[in-house]
Amino acid sequence: MGKIPYKTYLTEEEIPKQWYNVRADMKEQHDPLLDPATLKPVATEDLYPIFCEELSKQEMDSTTRYIDIPEPVREFYRMFRPSPLIRAYNLEKALDTPARIYYKFEGNNTSGSHKLNAAAAMAYYAKAQGLTSLTTETGAGQWGTALAQACAFFGLDLTVFMVKVSYMQKPFRKGVMETYGAKVIPSPSDVTSVGRAILADNPDTGGSLGCAISEAIEMSMTDEKCRYALGSVLNQVLLHQSIIGLESKIAMEKIGEYPDIIIGCAGGGSNLGGLMSAFMQDKLTGKTDSRFIAVEPASCPSLTRGKYAYDFCDTGKITPLARMYTLGSGFMPSPNHAGGLRYHGMSPILSKLYHDGYMEAVSVEQSKVFEAATLFCRQEQILPAPESAHAIHSAIEEALKCKESGEAKTILFGLTGTGYFDMSAYMHFNEGTMNDHIPTDEELELGFATLPPVD
Amino acid sequence: MGKIPYKTYLTEEEIPKQWYNVRADMKEQHDPLLDPATLKPVATEDLYPIFCEELSKQEMDSTTRYIDIPEPVREFYRMFRPSPLIRAYNLEKALDTPARIYYKFEGNNTSGSHKLNAAAAMAYYAKAQGLTSLTTETGAGQWGTALAQACAFFGLDLTVFMVKVSYMQKPFRKGVMETYGAKVIPSPSDVTSVGRAILADNPDTGGSLGCAISEAIEMSMTDEKCRYALGSVLNQVLLHQSIIGLESKIAMEKIGEYPDIIIGCAGGGSNLGGLMSAFMQDKLTGKTDSRFIAVEPASCPSLTRGKYAYDFCDTGKITPLARMYTLGSGFMPSPNHAGGLRYHGMSPILSKLYHDGYMEAVSVEQSKVFEAATLFCRQEQILPAPESAHAIHSAIEEALKCKESGEAKTILFGLTGTGYFDMSAYMHFNEGTMNDHIPTDEELELGFATLPPVD
Prior knowledge:
The structure is a homodimer.
Chain A: E1 7-8, E2 18-20, H1 53-60, E3 66-68, H2 71-77, E4 85-87, H3 89-95, E5 100-105, H4 116-128, E6 133-138, H5 142-154, E7 157-163, H6 164-169, H7 171-179, E8 183-187, H8 193-201, H9 209-221, E9 226-228, H10 235-254, E10 261-265, H11 270-284, E11 291-297, H12 302-305, E12 307-312, E13 321-326, H13 348-355, E14 360-364, H14 366-380, H15 386-405, E15 410-415, H16 423-430, H17 441-448
Parallel strand pairs in A: 5-15, 6-7, 6-9, 7-8, 10-11, 10-15, 11-14
Antiparallel strand pairs in A: 1-4, 2-3, 4-5, 12-13
């Protein structure tokens, strides 16, 4: 074999035709969703008022190992997939490390991230069920943009509740969503009762993802032809995002590689869950013993400082309860925190894998994240999203450990997206005005105090 | 052969190893650059104080057909090339046209455009000559970003004079350039004498590309280890950009296609010149008879309403004179004009080819450009740069003519970049507050009055 190329692409024919459901290979399943009123496990049909039926089934399916990707979704995928697996030759050179560093780059699409993988599936299934519209929330804006793109393509109306502080900071994200025909409402808003209640309590709030979720669900309930879509945390999202890891694995096979370490940033878990699941299968089935590292912001440390407990998925407390690592649905990351990765909880699947010792977690302060981003963009020529730069930071740390030990490990990380809409954060960093806020134990206790009395 | 894929990539080995110099196949050369003081043709050495030596030689070389791409530039290219040739299946479907529409997408890199192709070459040659810094100008920001990326990689300091109105409208472009270590100065500025003179005349001016060029050249002259770099118009730029067309041609051969019509937006000519040159070779040598269409903004119509005359390349009148289609170096496009394509002149090579009947030109009003952009982004899922959307508009028009005539022509256009930093223009369009300004004959006369008395 000659030199490994900078970028390895699959052909369009090689793009996987099925998603992989990691639950089918997990020794133990995560605890069931509970109805908050009865504390009884939720049945599939109970989800039908929230999600469309096919997605509700996927949410509850822990046994089907592979699920066919519908042809219209595959057609959509062919507009931006396969994404490249990139060898970070120039980063390796700058670090002078014997490690071989690879990244799966999911940002070369207008949404600027991997979110389009799940958005395509959700819009397709909604259309196939005869629905006419969807609602959703967005924080940093990638998810809202991705769903706006997919809804424009499949012919659905979309209303996006955008966390107010992001709405103000990122007017251009709103512009992109509107260009795709979506309606964008800053949250909390006065168009839902939960929004009005939150505003009455705290008129000056900048909002939160949990609050925007509550508003989006409430609005979806008012229209029989409308459902809600969520871009992270859910089992269905990890299923759709499994395409990232499946493609990565095939690409690595092509060049004769297998990762010793798999690294992903983790907010709700959509990217890490998607990147790692095809490799986690090998670990769960005893074939390999790779390390998996979740990297989260020190300002929103659900895995590293959260509790493994039943919690609401939203601030308005209208969702089912999920057992996950959580900071409490009332937790709010500091306004200094830039970019996404600001959700109070973590995917129940990832939470379970972490709890059972299959995965590690680290947290990184914001200024160190932007240091890593700056080094990376000058060497690799891609300006990363702040979210993705968490994984870069950890990949650099592991590569430097290799330099110390002389080991030539193979590192794979997820470059989930680009930072083109995050320049105000970069400018704060460049000007030296970026603050690192790490919540004190007392601040965390305020979040934990909002946990429901279950267990 | 099976179905043509959505995206055709070359392998990294297939990326051309030489640039193509279209002048070597032109029957007649464009008129020489003239020294404005003596009106004598400029010699290669006369350019050495402005450009580094290798680039000066490339600028004047009309006979070498193929020029080797240096290995470090090829290494840089491998980080973002090959770019995909994309079949616009979904746009075709939306238009219900028998035409086959392809686009070469050059926007999947952080600069957001094809500009990185020339930036890599210029930074490399400057470094190889032992220089320590470059200066340049930027309007919409793609070129400044591209050169900032290349300078960060090759280890050069960079000062960018950014047209003041863009500097104000696009603070995030400045942020990207600074993240790559460049110094960004709004132009006109008080750091050059030409800037101070312009400010003295007109303290409230928003600046122009021609003025920023003057400032960048003046600054480069003050330091023996510094030279100036320009991202369009020049022969060297068309040479470096020839990689676009060379790759496109190989990709089309792979899928058994050859374009009947080649379409590119045209400001100074960097993209169109690069996209078309490999195909123009076939036309110049009598092998094919494709149509070539330059699409320019109605607000800055150098080909369609300009004069073919000797003119300065800058507002400060310190550059050599070039014979080109021009609106006069004093012409200023309306402040309503969004994006790039605002230069007063046009590449001498393209001007000559147009003058000699090898190429057509059309102009499009801004609101029609954004209509085309919106249709395109909803179908093809890529939000185009306003510049690129000029070519989209023309491609759609040609595809609709095919629908009328029933002809299944093959159309190739250049999707030069993405519009992620142009959202304020999109938002004006979405809100119905975008104005189309087409210069009146009287306004054009004001520009022509600034032409030097040559010929």
